[in-house]
Predict the 3D structure of the following.
Amino acid sequence: MRKRMLHTCVRVKDLDKSLDFYKDVLGMKEVRRLDYPEYKFTLVYLALPGDEVELELTYNYDQEEPYDLGNGYGHIAIGVENLSDTHDEFSQSGQDVTELTELSDGAASYFFIKDPDGYKIEIIQLKD
């Protein structure tokens, strides 16, 4: 049986602020939007250019308090060709980023950036 990853979902408090982050900072494009005013929520699907896997932002109209991220959420991961330049770009634009880290065995180099709701996105150096 054929299977493939379709999307990951995160709930966002401020849809416009989140769209600004995912589009302007991370370079994602809006793939589609589904509004359900009768149920008081909107779904916005985003993807990086050329990727099939999507990120679904779920916006519940009545959410006034920030979401409790809990301790079960891990992170979203995005690969980049030049980790150092990407880190510098995000840092200089005032984004909430961690220091560059390299695993002791050299398996990965990365840093984390947070979205407006506090979700972590791991930015990883792509291997050749």
